[in-house]
Amino acid sequence: MFLERIQREPMKQENLFKINYTSPIVRTLLQQRLIELLSLAKRNQPIIIVCIGTDRSTGDSLGPLVGTYLYKFRSDLFHVYGTIAQPVHALNLVDTINHIKANYDDPFIIAIDACLGQSSSVGYIQSNVGPVRPGAGVNKQLPEVGDVHITAVVNVGGFMEYFVLQNTRLHLVMSMSDIISHSLYAAIVKHFKLNSNTTHVK
After folding, report:
1. Is residue 28 included in any domain, yes or no?
2. With a cut of 50, which residues of the chain have pLDDT below it?
3. What is the pLDDT of residue 137?
4. Which of 62, 127, 165, 167 is most buried as measured by Cβ atoms within 10 A of its Cβ?
5. Inside any domain, residue 177
6. Domain enclosing residue 87, as ranges
7. How many CB atoms lie within 10 A of CB 43?
């Protein structure tokens, strides 16, 4: 989990995509945005999805939930790290990154994480070019992850972050996880079809 970065440093607003999960067209627009981000990957570059978080905290379980949903697709178009069964968190993030670097040639990494932000931003899904900074919201020093990222604002930041994460609504986290996972899967399938990189699609 990391504190929503628009509170910490300027972002390239022209590249920032942000939409509320309750929007009736959220899946369509998020899928289109993710197709744009996937176009940055090189031809035949392996796609790795790193879903950051822990199942021990409701708010911070968004990443592992997304990873679990993606894993259930059983697709060979991408590789997933971070599920409810095997989460990627502060204690194993460095080892996970090292494993990815050792086993994949120049991977294109999509990082997914929950974040805290302003009250007006809660419920928003956002994506952009560049990495996430896991743990920044709770003052942990962890490596940046991702060529591109998807984040979801699950609650309000700035005060007692651990307590806030523990008291985040599960409905919100599960709803946003479902939207992100299905939109990302659809975008990856579309990406491979558009680029004719594979002869079969699961």
Report:
1. yes
2. 3-11, 13, 197-202
3. 52
4. 62
5. yes
6. 2-194
7. 7
Tokens 């604002």 found at? 153
Q: How many domains does one find in the chain?
A: 1
CA 111, 181, 45, 40 dihedral sign is negative
Going by C-alpha positions, the residue among 150, 89, 152, 156 that lies closest to residue 116 is 156
Q: Per the domain annotation, does 202 fall within a domain?
A: no
Q: What is the pLDDT of residues 135-180, one digit of tens each?
A: 655 556 789 999 999 999 999 876 667 767 877 899 999 999 999 9
- Amino acid identity at 158: G
Amino acid occupying residue 32? Q
34-43 confidence digits (pLDDT tens): 999 999 999 8
Number of Cβ atoms within 10 Å of the Cβ of 97 = 19
Query: What is the CATH number for 105?
Result: 3.40.50.1450
Longest dimension (CA), the chain: 50
